[in-house]
Design goal:
2 domains, alpha+beta, 5 helices
Length: 203
C-alpha cells in the first residue's frame, strides 16, 4: 500500500466517524503539545490530612460514569481521576468539539443535566434525597459555572459534590470534587479556584 493510499483511507475514516479523536489520528499536525492540559494533583482543593494523587490522562469516557452528566459524555472524551487517602475524590473530563458553537451547545447540555440532576436522582431511587445548588458563573475564558449536589440515603449515607462546567473556545471541561458530608463541608472557594485553573489550562 502506498503512503498516498494509506493517507486517503485514514482521512475517509475520520470523515465517516465524525469524531475529533479520529481527526487527530489522521492529521499529522495533531500532537500532544496541542492537546488540552489537565489539572495536576496540587490544583485540587487542599485536603487537611492527605495529599492528592493523580491518575494518567486517559482517552475515552471515565468508568464509572460521573453522576449527573455521565450519559452525555461522548467517546472522544479524555479524563483524569484524582484521589486522597480518605473518602475524597475528584475527576476532570475534557472534550474538544469540532468548533466553538458545538462546544457551546455541549457545555449547555452538561449544565442542563446538572440542573436537573437532583430531581432525576430522586426519581430513580425513592430511598435517596438530593438537593442541588447553583453557585454562579466564573469569569474565566468563555465562562465556567459551578454547582453543588448533596445526596443522602435512607440508610444514612451523606455525600457532597461540587461540579463545574467551563469552556475555552471549542474545548469544554467538566470537573467534579466529592466527599462524605453536607453542604457545610463543601470547599467552595477552593473549588472555584480549581475550576478557574482547569479552564485556564485548556490551551
Amino acid at each position: 500500500m502506498t503512503l498516498r493510499s494509506r493517507s486517503v483511507r485514514l482521512t475517509l475514516a475520520a470523515v465517516a466517524t465524525g469524531t475529533a479523536l479520529a481527526v487527530a489520528a489522521a492529521t499529522p499536525s495533531a500532537s500532544a503539545a496541542s492537546a488540552p492540559k489537565f489539572l495536576a494533583a496540587g490544583d485540587l482543593p487542599p485536603h487537611p490530612t492527605s495529599p492528592w494523587y493523580a491518575g494518567r490522562v486517559t482517552a475515552g469516557q471515565p468508568d464509572p460514569l460521573p453522576i449527573c452528566v455521565g450519559e452525555a459524555l461522548p467517546s472522544i472524551s479524555s479524563h483524569r481521576t484524582f484521589w486522597t487517602e480518605y473518602d475524597t475524590s475528584a475527576l476532570q473530563v475534557t472534550v474538544v468539539a469540532q468548533n466553538a458553537q458545538k462546544a457551546k451547545d455541549f457545555a449547555a447540555l452538561l449544565r442542563k443535566k446538572i440542573n436537573g440532576c437532583a430531581a432525576a436522582l430522586e426519581q430513580q431511587d425513592p430511598d435517596m434525597s438530593a438537593t442541588g445548588r447553583y453557585y454562579g458563573k466564573l469569569g474565566v475564558e468563555e465562562g465556567a459555572h459551578v454547582y453543588g449536589l448533596h445526596t443522602a440515603s435512607s440508610w444514612g449515607a451523606s455525600d457532597i459534590a461540587l461540579l463545574s462546567v467551563g469552556r475555552d473556545g471549542r474545548t469544554v471541561t467538566f470537573v467534579k470534587w466529592s466527599q462524605m458530608g453536607t453542604f457545610r463541608h463543601a470547599q467552595l472557594a477552593d473549588f472555584k479556584r480549581t475550576t478557574k485553573t482547569a479552564v485556564n489550562k485548556l490551551y
